[in-house]
Amino acid sequence: LTPFLRAQTAVGEWSDHLVYSTSVDVAVGNGEIFSSTGSSLMVYNRQFDEVKRLSKINGLSETGIAAIGWSGPTQTLIVAYTSGNIDFIADNTITNLPDIARKNMSIDKIINKIRCLGDYCYLACNFGIAVLDISGNEVLDTWRPGVDGYYPVINDIAFGGGYVYAATDQG
What we know:
mainly beta; 4-stranded antiparallel beta sheet; 1 helix
């Protein structure tokens, strides 16, 4: 009879105890499916039928994931946090873009949805729409659609006919 052994984390190393049983957002890349648990990411590789975990312990900037999105042209996963902080993940490299998180605003910086078109991604935020250049790792522009000083929360974005459509609680 062999006794049951449990390996412990080595001294100086960290292990996570995050929830991996719930998915709050999904993005599909080339050969991989990304699932946000809200605190970490699970990455399913379809070719090798394996799952790996990404968290703050092994490279993500934070734990409060608000939204994820995939850019096919740049082969990049965009991870947005509730603070407004953003990670770009491409070729097993994580690049952080802290510009929105660092911006002094009176409204919260939650990113509700990420939509990508070409080399750019559009963030539907509580403060408006932010346009990011993925390859340049920079915020290109911020739009605040609204009338008469009222700027609604942008819940989602759609593209069509050369226009960008913003979905708000009012339409």
